[in-house]
Amino acid sequence: MKVNQKQNFLKGLIKENPVFVYVLGICSILAVTKTLESGIGMSMAVIFVLFFSNVVIALIKNIVPNDIRIPVYIIVITTFVSIVELIMQAYLPDLFDQLGVFVALIAVNCIILGRAEAYASKNSVLSSAVDALGMGLGYTIAICLVSIFREVLGTGVITIWGNAKINLMPVFDFFHVQPSTFFTNNVGAFIVLGIVIGVVNAIVFAIKDKKEKAKKEVKANG
Amino acid sequence: MKKLPYPLYLALFLGVLGIIAAGLLAGINILTAPAIKANEEKKLAEQFKVIEVESPEILEVELLENVLGAYEGLTNGKACFVFNVQNKNQFLTVQTLVVISQEDGKILNLSVNLPATTHGMDSSFEGNKFGVIDANQDDFTGKFVTISGATTSSNSVKACINLAYEQYKGIKGV
Amino acid sequence: MANLITLAFGALLIENVLLYRFLGFCPFLGVSKKRSSAVGMGLAVIVVIVLATIVTWALYHYVLKPLNIVYLQTLTFILVIAALVQMVEMFLKKVVPPLYRSLGIYLPLITTNCAVLGVASLVIAYEYDFASMFVFSLFSSVGFLFVLYIFSGLREAMEHAPIPKPFKGTPIALIATAALALIFARLGGII
């Protein structure tokens, strides 16, 4: 069965977005979206783990005894998480301090175990790799959306990386409003994520309804 | 080769996988260990910069419990000791560098390293990990009586300062 | 002793695992639809978190640290948790079958519950001694049950509310959680 790799990659972005459609990985999104920098750092770590664990699991899927497949997946995934932990501690210590315990928690991130069980264990190495990249990018889009809203509304500044910041305070001054730390604390996290998912759902439903209507018209006319 | 009983095969599979994983991690650990150590030393050097101590030299003395290190150096021309002290309680571990003047035991400067989330001191440390806080020193005992904002973390900092002062007294033989 | 009481209060209400630390969310959204399943899940989580934290704490202090293999922390902790969940499953199957059946797939999913690995890792990061570790894990997990129970009651009521379609399910659950978090946040001034 030939797999269309382009479709395979794109599905992770919208149609099967792990956050908006499958509602996975919520814990990590709530915790690391205080600044865009930590959001981007977290998604890079997740993409790394997701990619390598999907590839390895697809490679060994035929020799893994079915009864112990979940413990095997867990060992593979956790090994790559520990590798990320060590690399981050060595070369990106500030990011490691910001993310804290949530780097280790990538090991129990439902997205990674979910893709291993649902996809990598049943598909080729190439497809699994592409799937990992697509899903990882979908996760990144979700995290960046939420981080941007929380950081802008919370502090008026977007931190892209280190000292590269975009100061949006002039926009605030123009409308005579002030950023509020409400959005960077935990209550704000829930609200922003809830609203973002709700709005994304609304957009997706609207597009779906339009497509349905167009289909019906074609049927009625054809 | 005789076929292995199934449970043994499963256990062996997991065992071998575990050993491969542990070996891989051990290798990466050896590769990254020097970089991690260098980062810790950089952090300490940055903290020294905040308290304006020039040319700190390690002091060879017997350290009290929870005193991580003792140094001597110059700050603004005055000879001083610097003590790297930590205080742990259920809520957080606070590490401070306390600068004590060598001649009269007055606290000259202070920098605090707080963990990422903490009660009470957030507003003064937004983004910066190290900072200097206001404090009142009791002139007679040299012990710290109050620190602005009596919260969990300020109590820890107070404990650090008092411990540093104890270490100072130990060195001076007071 | 007073410190332990403050720690307990903090872990239960103020730095609540779900509302402040954001741990344990995936099962939270799935299981909180009925009050009875919420209670069962919460109790199972308490047992797993307390047992797992004790074992991993001991593992860290008596094996990983002395042998200088701290980099194996995440891997060994997860394997301990997975093994413990298996044992709890077998125990429930034999001793309390109805509970085992009502929890269904959610019982093995406790292995991937961020709260379990999260609490175990936090206890090491905060460098707690045995008593503090026990109090922290017990009251954090009770805090999980507490919020889960309140929330399932809320959700049962929300079933009948006229919510616009895009917001049904996860979005409205998150916004309702925000309201809960706001209430709990007000308690922050007490300690």
Can you give a write-up of this model?
The complex is a heterotrimer of chains A (222), B (174) and C (191). Chain A has 222 residues and is mainly α. Helix content of chain A is 69%, strand content 4%. Chain A is built from nine helices and two strands. In chain A, helix 7 packs across helix 9. The model of chain A has no long low-confidence stretch (mean pLDDT 86). Chain B folds into two domains: 50 residues; 120 residues, no CATH class. In chain B, the strands form two sheets. In chain B, strands 1-2-3-4-5 form a five-stranded antiparallel β-sheet. In chain B, a hairpin with a 6-residue loop joins strand 6 and strand 7. Chain B starts with 5 loop residues before the first helix and ends with a helix. Chain C is mainly alpha-helical and 191 residues long. In chain C, helix 1 runs parallel beside helix 7, helix 4 packs across helix 5 and helix 6 runs antiparallel to helix 7. The longest helix of chain C is centred in the first third of the chain and has 30 residues. At the A-B interface, helix 4 and helix 5 of A face helix 1 of B.
Spans of chain C of at least 5 consecutive residues whose pLDDT stays below 50 are: none
Low-confidence stretches of chain B: 116-134
Indicate the overall shape of chain B.
elongated
Question: Could you say which overall geometry of chain C the principal axes of the C-alpha atoms support?
Answer: globular
What class, by secondary structure content of chain C?
mainly alpha
Order of helices and strands of chain C: HHHHHHHH
H/I helix tally of chain C: 8
- Helix and strand sequence of chain B: HEEEEEEEH
Entry summary:
The complex is a heterotrimer of chains A (222), B (174) and C (191). Chain A has 222 residues and is mostly helical.
What are the SSEs and their pairings?
The complex is a heterotrimer of chains A (222), B (174) and C (191).
Chain A: H1 5-11, H2 26-32, H3 36-60, H4 69-91, H5 93-99, H6 110-120, H7 125-155, E1 157-161, E2 164-167, H8 169-174, H9 186-221
Antiparallel strand pairs in A: 1-2
Helix pairs in contact in A: 1-7, 3-4, 3-6, 3-7, 4-5, 4-6, 6-7, 7-9
Chain B: H1 6-50, E1 54-58, E2 67-75, E3 78-88, E4 93-101, E5 107-113, E6 135-137, E7 144-147, H2 152-172
Antiparallel strand pairs in B: 1-2, 2-3, 3-4, 4-5, 6-7
Chain C: H1 2-14, H2 25-31, H3 35-64, H4 73-95, H5 97-103, H6 114-125, H7 130-158, H8 170-185
Helix pairs in contact in C: 1-7, 3-4, 3-6, 3-7, 4-5, 4-6, 6-7, 7-8
